[in-house]
Amino acid sequence: MLKIEIKFISKTGKKPERMSEYASGYDIYADVEKDIVLKPLERALIPTGFAISLPKPFEAQIRPRSGLALKDGITVLNSPGTIDSDYRGEVKVILINLSNKDFIVKRDMRIAQMVISKHEDVIFETVEFLDKTDREQGGFGHTLY
What we know:
Blueprint: E1 7-10, E2 26-29, E3 36-38, E4 43-47, E5 50-53, E6 58-63, H1 66-72, E7 74-76, E8 81-83, E9 92-97, E10 103-105, E11 110-118
Antiparallel strand pairs: 1-5, 2-11, 3-10, 4-9, 6-8, 6-11, 7-9
């Protein structure tokens, strides 16, 4: 397994952490001054209290926690959110309440998970035609299960 070093600053001292040995995501915590009530279909930008410095060519993806999604209908609105390697500000998470009841975000609550991913630089080449495939332009739902 490749290990990369990520520089980290935290107002709270709390670091993202894996909850099991083979977890790919690191749970991240809410750093709110007071409880935030998310009403049904309401969204809010939740601070985490930390910032990171990612080496190139890595990004951090902010994803929902499956437990919050299943039990409470809480998810990350722009999932996955992307933290680029040149961003140095506080990591914040856009949560949305897709349930029919209020949800309370409390300080130090695990609100999302962060997955570190490598990405490649690409060069887009303009061409007249694309290569043929069996699928061609078949889009959403075009295959049978």
